[in-house]
Predict the 3D structure of the following.
Amino acid sequence: MMRNLLVVFVFFFGPAILMLIARSLLFMLRLWWQARQARARETQVIDVTPVRHERPSRAFVVVAIVLGIVSAVLAYQALNTKPAPKRIYVPAHLDAQGKVVPGHWETLPRQQP
């Protein structure tokens, strides 16, 4: 019974859906072709009128200058910071008395040049 209903639905609605898809594709193709033909028939006009030069607004200039100064200061500070001391991670282990020592970071001693 269910198989018969499934077969009926597939063979009834399947061709209808395929025809709807084919019709939609052909309609879109026809619209694209008409738009292409309309563009080909248009006369090409090249506009050579000079464009009036407009200065940027004061707010834009102020924001650009402030952002430039802030980024320059931050870059200068980042370049002049001392590097962090080299550290090594010591994993958790048992000490001499058998107690658990949790993992931690230790600073390496400075090497004399």
